[in-house]
Amino acid sequence: MSEFLLLDGVLLPAVDPQLLRATSFGHFTSLQVRDGRVDGLDLHFERLDRSTRDVFDRPLPEPRVRAELRAALDHARSGDLSIRVNVFATDELHLLIRIGPPVAPATQPVRLRTYQHERAVPHLKHTGTFDLTYHARKAQADGYDDALFHTAAGHISEASIWNICFARGSELIFPTAPTLPGIRQQLLQRGLPTYTSEPVPLTALTTYDAAYLTNSIDPALPVASINEVSYQSHPESADAIAKAYATQPAQAI
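== Branched-subunit amino acid aminotransferase/4-amino-4-deoxychorismate lyase ==
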């Protein structure tokens, strides 16, 4: 008997069960495309190749990824998209590309609740994201916007789908606890004339002037509060971030 799938009792003949099994072990990157261009596209290519070598012991050349991204744009007939590139393997290496409408950055500062949690193999953007969604939903159920993680030693690391940075004046500080090196974070660091990496203890949250979340959608989303610690609008650090990004133009697919 061959394998098959039912969804709510309805047969799904077009979905290969082997595909679903394979995609549960892999990695991905997410891109916001505007007018056929992507912020930090070279960093996405580097992430995909580095992660593929780590997980599957083989390279993922940039020309292959670029060709499949161009095919995605051709199918969508638009240069404004959200794209997720999933990499998995059966006997061969596969790229599964999901295309959707572009997502606008958030406009309201967010309130974060902290949880002690450390992702497995945090340097990889892997498909094991249950824990991230679980903690984000817990935070929302408790009246917050999202979850922020810290280590057993009490050092801030990252949020559910964001990196976080802190500000003292115009200086930006990035936590040294193990995290996923986000593309937007790398792009921001590349544009800054100088920045600091240091442990960020929970006990030191009041010593910072501001905090920002970064990911492919939100380049610098202000943090309104972390637990009971509140932050106000901080033009000095916001201006430093804007100037850093201005030095890093989007790259054409």
